[in-house]
Each structure stands twice: as C-alpha cells, then as structure tokens.
C-alpha cells in the first residue's frame, strides 16, 4: 500500500473542500499572480532594451555628425608674400630636378637587382629565372642593351620557323 498513488486523495479532497472558493479559485489566483510577475519582467526587459537602442542610436548619430563636420570643414586661404611664393617654387623645381637626375643614366647594378627580384616575385614559377623585356621590348644586359619594334618582331617571325 506504500506505492498506491491514490492513498492521499481523500485527504487532499477534504482540504480542498474546506478552502473558500475551492481548488479552482486557488489555482487561478496563483496563475494570475505569476502571469503579472512575468509581464512586469517582460515590460522591464523591453524598456531596458529600448533605452539601450536609443543610447546606441544617439551615439551613432553624434559620431556621424562629428565625421561630417570634419569632412566638410571650410577651406582656408593663407596669403603669402611674393618672396615666399618664389622660395616655394624654387623648392618644387629642385625636388623635380633631383628626382629626374637620380632616375637618368644607366642605373646601378643594385637597382637592377632589386627590380629583377621584385618582378620575379610577381610572375609565375615557370617564368622564374628568365630575363624580362625592357620598355623598348628588348633586353638590358650588363654590357649590352637592345630594343625592337613590333614590326621587326613580325618580320623575324615570318622569315623563320619557331620550334617549341
């Protein structure tokens, strides 16, 4: 009889009958109380979420306004004397001249080696170790330099047989 599920039914029925409103009203009261607590918690979480979204939106809007203000700052004009303008122009011309002077001539072997290394890194592995054509579609060697035109290449190809 210890495992009989109905052994306390009579006792519980007696208690429920003595309670005002019966079992049905007690269950309803507890249910409505818990539903109100759950609704209050849901409203509180919703309000917190809305407040957080509003703060985030305000921060984003402020950052956007700051960015626009930085981007659209009015241009300022600074007047300089004729003497300062001439000095600036001379400096610009000196810079241009120094750049063209360093770029002219045969170039050092170190510059050539750096250029070869840079171009080898960009090409296929099949092309590694092969010489690259210069600007004139020819070749630059240590003691010899040559160029060719497309017309010369086509004449050469028409008169000879290429074996691959």
Automatic annotation (TrEMBL):
Residues 81-90 have a biased composition (Acidic residues). One of its GO terms (cellular component) is cytoplasm. InterPro entries: HSP20-like_chaperone, NudC_fam. Residues 36-73, 91-102 have a biased composition (Basic and acidic residues). The lineage of its organism: Eukaryota, Metazoa, Ecdysozoa, Arthropoda, Hexapoda. GO terms for biological process: protein folding. SUPFAM superfamilies: HSP20-like chaperones. GO terms for molecular function: unfolded protein binding. Residues 36-143 are annotated as: Disordered. This is Nuclear migration protein nudC. It comes from Papilio machaon. PANTHER family: NUCLEAR MIGRATION PROTEIN NUDC (PTHR12356:SF3), NUCLEAR MOVEMENT PROTEIN NUDC (PTHR12356).
């Amino acid at each position: 009889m210890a495992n009989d599920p109905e052994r306390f039914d009579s006792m519980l029925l007696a208690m429920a009958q003595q309670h005002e409103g019966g079992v049905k009203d007690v269950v309803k009261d507890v249910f409505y109380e818990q539903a109100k607590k759950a609704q209050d918690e849901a409203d509180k979480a919703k309000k917190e979420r809305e407040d957080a979204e509003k703060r985030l939106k305000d921060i984003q809007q402020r950052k956007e306004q700051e960015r626009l203000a930085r981007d659209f700052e009015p241009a300022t004009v600074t007047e300089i004397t004729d003497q300062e303008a001439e000095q600036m122009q001379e400096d610009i011309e000196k810079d241009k001249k120094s750049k063209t002077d360093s770029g002219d001539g045969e170039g050092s072997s170190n510059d050539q080696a750096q250029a070869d290394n840079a171009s080898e890194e960009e090409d296929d592995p099949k092309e590694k170790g092969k010489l690259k054509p210069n600007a004139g579609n020819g070749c630059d060697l240590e003691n010899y330099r040559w160029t060719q035109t497309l017309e010369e290449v086509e004449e050469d190809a028409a008169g000879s047989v290429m074996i691959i």
